[in-house]
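Suppose a colleague, Dr. K., hands you the sequence of a protein chain of 550 amino acids and asks what its three-dimensional shape might be. Before reaching for any lab equipment, you can write down a predicted structure in token form. Begin with the sequence itself:
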Amino acid sequence: MDELSVFLGGRAGEGVKRGALVIGKLFNRYGYHVFIMDDYVSTIRGGQDYSEIRISKKEVFSQKGISDIFFSFHEDIFERYSSKTKRDTVAVLDGKGGTNVPFDEIIKEKNASPVMKPSVILGVLSYVCEIPFEFVVKTLESEFKEKADKNIELAKAGFEYAKENNFPKLRMERWTKPQFPVISGNELTALGAVRAGMKVYTAYPITPASTLLHFLAKESKRLHIAAIHTEDEISAAVMAIGAAYAGAPAMCGTSGPGIDLMGEAISLAGGTEIPLVIVDAQRAGPTTGVPTYTEQGDLNLVLNVGHGEFPRIVLAPGTIDESFDVAARAMQYAWWYQTPVFVLTDKHIAESTKTVNIQFGKKYPLPVKYFEGSGVYKRYQVTEDGISPIAFPSMKGIVNHTNSTEHTEEGYSSSLPENVVKMKEKRLKKAETIRNDFLAEHTINVFGDVDAKNTVITFGSPTGTLLEAIEGLPLKLLQVIALEPFPVEKVKNIFDHSEKIISVEQNSTGQFAELVKCKTGRAPDEKILRYDGRPFDPFELKERLKEALL
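The predicted structure, expressed as tokens, is then:
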């Protein structure tokens, strides 16, 4: 088989998410590309969780939606998600007979924890896919270190059970892809920011941004950073601003509800011209919404959050792989332009996992326009590009007056009309500089048939699904990375050669389509929206694209 899709379902506390990751790492070790999507409810115990692991000889950017092997620790999970099976799907439930496996019985016999059930599955997959068991052993030893023995014992039990009961074979030959790391979007966002110089990360835990904090806290010593769990989202934003004011590049992370709370602090960073990177890992809203599911409903929020007028930059990675570069560039932009920069990701990118081939050694120097003069330091000096030289309180001979009220060039509070106008026009000049500079920046991607007369336009996580969905269709894919400043001319150039434009996004009102219309003057001819909290899958999306092309 060139490709395999595995469904793993259980309840919270049965190791589904970790188990899916280990399965993915097994096949990655065996030479395949993998993509893993996790679906879980907002409970600590109980509920119904599942993961979809897609394994392929070619690189894949989304889940498949239909399984070749369906593992379920409980019959009710199979009943609920049977739509993810097909006629020849191998269904493996808890029990005996057919292709069932007595998971609970094996766990009890081996005196193991229920969270170890997925290790039994590794053994079953080793037999069914004809993967030498030594690959299972190496994977478990790498993942669990000194705790690997019990997991190996469980995997061996699963292998023997499948062998004794003559389970059907779905042979996966050893493939030759180099063993790339298997990593999530949040982890890549973290590593990209660190690569560009981030020294402080602040956050209050909120799904789906929590794993970003967990990862950075766990790896803080190795990465030489401080990862701080604050008391709330307001504190996270203000602490990041304080760190940057002192000269330490900082980033804070949250989801939509946290952005609401950070609004005043974001305006503070914009008005005081302090570099700030904010990660918004979107989830379904409004209010608490559906906290463990995906959506792209925060676009208008990040484009407008914060009172008053000040420059901002909004970037959105379209795939897990792109998260690294976008986060690194966000840090660079924040420090050069001294303004808030948003990384607008979402649950599907943030928490999904795949094999990635990234140049982690690529250099992302942190550009800073330092004050190099002498005498009186003007924190808000008016310049041709609107960017003032920056100095930090620790620098000798410098007095840094940073003021959150409107101010003079020296940083002293002033409400005189001439000073108000001077500072507003200074920030407007900075915004103009950003727009002009971004003409030469990497702000869009174009995929598919570049000569096609029809264009599908999107941002964020639908990009990965569309890469597969447009195959064989008379479409080119235009992915917008920079949502502010919007790449107006680049998009218009593509629209000028497009007969039909189709926008794809995950919200109920078409926020991106409205942005495209506002910026280019041309509204998409068709909108494909999904807003049930679940990501698009390539086969469903392909059918909707076909309908839109009629």
